[in-house]
Amino acid sequence: MPDLPHSVPSPTAASPGMQRQFEIYQLGLAGKKLSVPIPVAQLENKAAEVLPPQAYDYVAGSASGERSARANLAAFDRWRIVPRMLRDVSQRDLTVDLFGHTLPAPVLLGPIGVQNIIHPDAEVAVARAAASLGVPFVLSTVSSRPLEEVAHAMAAAPRWFQLYWGKDHELTASLLQRAEKSGYTALVVTLDTAMLGWRERDLQHPYLPFLLGHGLANYFIDPVFCSRLPQSPQADPASAIRLWATLFSNTALTWSDLAWLRRQTRLPILLKGILHPDDARLALDHGVDAIIVSNHGGRQVDGAIAALDALPAVAAAIQQKMPILFDSGIRYGADAIKALALGARAVLLGRLYVWGLAIAGEQGVRDVVQNFLADLDLTMGLSGFRSVRELDASILTREK
Ligand code: FNR
Fold first, then answer.
1. What backbone torsions phi and psi does residue 103 show, to the nearest 5 degrees?
2. pLDDT at position 4
3. In this model, does residue 13 exceed pLDDT 70?
């Protein structure tokens, strides 16, 4: 039997997917493995093993019968890529332009709150992993580490801030000023969470991390928030948590409030949670900079349209007048390709990277994201495309 090679030649950087495959096989030759399982189903199973049940359910769960979450995944199966051949795909380009910046790939790490219930390094681990890859990280309002600390961990790497727009306008203005000052370059305003959805798993435990004081770091150091309290959140956490619960959500907001928000920040504003084409048109009319088609991973409205199924009509309404981003159900490179082909400029990862965080912290997130990017690169090339800019609906067919 011939000797097994102890190393394998590395392909060129023009093929990040092949590069990643070789890295993984090379590790195998050295008797090693990545920090995380590679099959997505195993990744989630492993996270379920290492996380306390309440934390796992908080992430995995969604609204009521969890039908929107299942629909999100099923929607991808109804679209099929029709690969093209003999088109010289030796040089591939995953970059996209957004708000005057070039991203290395059409991928961001989406806002996921309260990450300290997943891993002690929480958002700082995710921020470092994102920064090392040049992939933007969208930090949640309800992060467990203050936005300033996360910004510091990212140095000059790209980061966006996600806003939960609560009742206290002065507090909202303060959060926005802090985010701008800390180098966040876009504002994602999440519209679908004026209340929390009916989440059976969390109610069954019963477990809501915020009521234990998790995920409130941005509030507890905010001067406006603290000015509303007789004592500091450190001295009297129970009162601070109660105040947060009264201010967090604002069910009275309407489209006309966007004018106020526009006056508070110079950052590009993206509206997250758009599903209806009429809302997409309203977003255009109200002068925002982009929208994110999302159903919050199915966590808000049970029985909602799958996010991917909402995308074509939204794209038709927008007519390329502003960028559309997409999340909810992205698990594989092919999913991203389908969303891009149906009109998205970029996609946001959610639960996928959280499983990596649960299993192996910063390295786990980096491994999951690198695997995803490799899958995206290879699937694009094997489908006959050199650039994500070439993708449009003509590359897809819809299953009957
Ligand atoms: C979320 N999501 C979310 N969105 C947001 O705007 N602010 C937030 O703080 C959170 N927090 C959050 C926590 C957890 C545990 C999950 C699973 C999701 C929604 C998130 O940004 C994204 O829309 C979904 O995660 C996308 O669905 P998939 O791909 O994760 O299924």
1. -95, 145
2. 52
3. no
